[in-house]
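Supplementary notes for students who missed Thursday's class. We covered one full example, reproduced here. Read the sequence, then the structure, then the short commentary at the end.
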Amino acid sequence: MAVDLDEFKHPSWLTAAGTGIGYAIILAVLTVALFIVPWLVFAAL
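Structure (token representation):
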């Protein structure tokens, strides 16, 4: 079964990838802001 990779060049795939990457970045920033920063502040006390 041959897979035609040209079907993945549709703009909807770019939108889906951008959404996933954006979600991951926001999740990483929130994790740092809500867990890592307070941990560093309390560890410094």
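Commentary. Residues 16-44 form one domain. The chain has one helix and no strands. If anything here is unclear, bring it to office hours.
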